[in-house]
Automatic annotation (TrEMBL):
PANTHER family in UniProt: LARGE RIBOSOMAL RNA SUBUNIT ACCUMULATION PROTEIN YCED HOMOLOG 1, CHLOROPLASTIC (PTHR34374:SF1)
Pfam families: YceD (PF02620)
Top-level taxonomic group: Bacteria
Species the sequence originates in: Anaerosporomusa subterranea
InterPro entries membership: YceD (IPR003772)
Stated name of the protein: DUF177 domain-containing protein
Phylogenetic classification of the source organism: Bacteria, Bacillati, Bacillota, Negativicutes, Acetonemataceae
Length: 168
């Protein structure tokens, strides 16, 4: 995702627009489709400030039922580019470029990764998989969940439950 900055880098306070369409992109954990990446570059004198947003569709995998599902994403991003070679660790959040173009691919990739939900769930009411038989409880009801538990262990079972809906 290279942007030609030959003109803007010489022109303080100038603004340049950019736009990319990416049919498919993977961050390693999530695959994205039909990405629309657009925004502007501002030359503020010392740096080129790139702002923009990523619109598109993410193919997540549900952490409960393990089924893939699609979700719309809208992710804003911002990055500062400076011409030259990295000078010191103090400017670790600075992106560097040489020549007449900047590459925002890494910025886009990092922004996508940062916005990825820690726990992806296809929908709030997803019932997940049966821990006993492994059936997807959104699709079918198994008999495992109706099994009676020995009352002696029922109390213990309740204590061990990670998410007790009666507790807030
Ligand atoms: Zn699910
Ligand atoms: Zn089951």
């Amino acid at each position: 995702m290279n942007i030609d900055v030959f003109r803007i880098k010489k022109d303080v306070s100038a603004v340049q627009m950019y736009h990319f369409s990416v049919s498919s992109l993977s961050t390693g954990t999530v695959t994205y489709a039909d990405l629309d990446i657009s925004g502007k570059i501002l030359n503020d004198g010392a740096i080129l400030e790139v702002t923009g947003q990523i619109l598109g569709e993410a193919r997540f995998v549900c952490g409960r039922c393990l089924e893939p599902y699609l979700a719309k994403v809208e992710i804003p991003f911002q990055a500062n580019f400076k011409e030259g070679l990295p000078e010191s660790d103090q400017e670790a959040d600075m992106s560097w470029f040489q020549g007449d173009s900047i590459d925002i691919a890494e910025t886009v990739r990092e922004s996508l990764i940062l916005a990825e939900p820690f726990k992806q769930v296809c929908r709030q009411e997803c019932r997940g998989l049966c821990p006993i038989c492994g059936k997807n409880l959104n699709m079918e009801i198994c008999t495992c969940t109706t099994e009676t538990i020995n009352p002696k262990f029922a109390v213990l079972q309740k204590l061990l439950e990670p998410k007790n809906p009666t507790q807030s």
